[in-house]
Design brief:
about 425 residues, alpha+beta, 3-hydroxy-3-methylglutaryl-coenzyme A Reductase, Chain A, domain 2, Alpha-Beta Plaits, Helicase, Ruva Protein, domain 3, 3 domains, four-stranded antiparallel β-sheet, 10 strands, globular, binds (R)-mevalonate
């Protein structure tokens, strides 16, 4: 067992929110203004929101928490997570602590190319179209790069064009689909690649004398994968075997694979939201990647190797640290500072690592004690609020609901309503204290 150096972030959950902010500010080197953004003292400017989307009527607050104990590629990273679900952050932190003590997290990337698709829906002369596209490949790449000079100046741009032949599902002939392969540097790249695809359309129609249909990026970004590996050394064989068995279940059954992957995304989506990234794009990419063999598979794999438990994550994770709202959303800016990342690739690898650790925590709980007790213990505060408890009644309610959970092994809203009525009977001043 490794002895961990004492971190500023130790025991964060036992502190008040203000003390917690002090520690986070110091650990991440945040400015007083960053702190005001996080604490809500500097409210989110509604005028900014008005420019993000249409028909704005308000903003929708989601709690922003931090997961601790992540040592990724040898660096301690504080993970900002914007999420409404109880127990995700507690589980991530507890599991990361276990990994930090007993093992390690390593990450890497495979490739850096995103894909834009230019579709020719019903090609009359496939051989001719393929030949002219092939002959003019260099010119098409040059034309593509001419519409993204800023990206080219930063070292990115279109690198290659591939042609795919796809039979139409209605048996009415063939489609040709051009894949425009582009290095987006630190952008997610959707706007860049969509513009490139549309700009190529007239030239492709002219060259081939065929009609171009859709011009749009693909979210199945399999030319740009984020990978993470977690090792727990000399794991308790029963725990290791349980986690391995849980993975086999997910490999054999798509009903289980869907839930397994939801547990992984519990770790990833909150980081995407906190950093202003397009989580729908990442979700679509990960699910499509998991179905690439024709059967829906788990995105992670856990195996016992000798006495060690070894887990892997590999999937497309197209994120950006520039572009989109990452630069214009004040909280996203602070979240990126907290993570200490400038590069999209680093952010993607952190997401992969947190997803893998989150999955490990869920599988460990599910294959040993189950998740109900731990989750519901933390969820009692939500039940109390749903039952109508005032802020000052929540601790007493949590205590009472905790006892119900201990006794009955389950707890629900009816229990919360009964507990609240009982609390107010025994302490009639309870409800009026804040008025
Ligand atoms: C709940 O949000 C996530 C889990 O269902 C994941 C899993 O079953 O692996 C616990």
């Amino acid at each position: 067992m490794k002895k961990l150096a004492h971190s500023l972030l130790e025991g964060l959950h036992r502190l008040t929110r203000s003390e917690r902010l002090d520690r986070v500010q110091e650990f991440c080197g945040l400015s007083p203004e960053d702190r005001r953004v996080l604490s809500g003292e500097q409210p989110f400017p509604i005028e900014v929101a008005e420019h993000f989307i249409e028909n704005v009527v308000g903003v929708f607050p989601i709690p922003l928490g931090v997961a601790t104990h992540f040592h990724i590629d040898g660096r301690e990273v504080l993970i900002p997570m914007a999420v409404e679900e109880t127990s995700i952050i507690a589980a991530a932190s507890a599991t990361a602590k276990w990994v930090a003590r007993e093992g390690s997290i390593r990450t890497y990337s495979k490739g850096n190319l995103i894909i834009g698709q230019v579709q020719m829906p019903n090609v009359r002369n496939v051989a001719h179209a393929k030949r002219v596209l092939h002959e003019n490949r260099g010119d098409l790449i040059a034309l593509a790069n001419a519409c993204i000079p800023g990206l080219v100046a930063r070292g990115g741009g279109v690198r290659d064009i591939a042609i795919r032949e796809i039979a139409r599902p209605d048996d009415e002939g063939m489609m040709l689909v051009l894949h425009i392969l582009c290095d987006p540097c630190d952008a997610m790249g959707a706007n860049l690649i969509n513009q490139v695809c549309e700009a190529l359309k007239p030239r492709i129609e002219l060259l081939t004398d065929e009609r171009v249909g859709l011009c749009i990026l693909s979210n199945l970004v399999d030319g740009k994968l984020a990978c993470a590996e977690v090792i727990i050394r000399n794991v308790d064989p029963l725990i290791g075997k349980g986690i391995e068995e849980a993975t086999l279940f997910a490999k054999a059954d798509p009903y289980r694979a869907a839930t397994h992957n939801k547990g992984v995304l519990n770790g990833i989506d909150p980081i995407l939201i906190a950093t202003g990234n397009d989580w729908r794009a990442v979700e679509a990419g990960i699910h499509a990647y998991c179905a690439r063999s024709g059967s829906y598979q788990p995105v992670t794999d856990w195996k016992m190797v000798g006495g060690d438990l070894v887990g892997h994550f590999e999937a497309p994770l197209a994120v950006g640290t520039v572009g989109g709202v990452t630069r214009s959303h004040p909280v996203a800016q602070v979240a990126l500072k907290m993570l200490g990342v400038n590069r999209a690739d680093e952010l993607a690898r952190i997401c992969a690592a947190v997803g893998l650790v989150q999955n490990l925590g869920a599988l460990k709980a599910l294959s040993t004690v189950g998740i109900v007790k731990g989750h519901m213990q933390l969820h009692t505060a939500n039940l109390a609020i749903a039952a109508g408890a005032e802020v000052h009644e929540i601790s007493a309610m949590r205590e009472r609901l905790g006892k119900v959970l201990e006794r009955e092994k389950r707890v629900n809203l009816s229990d919360a309503l009964a507990c609240l009525a009982d609390l107010r009977k025994t302490d009639p001043t309870a409800v009026s204290q804040i008025h």
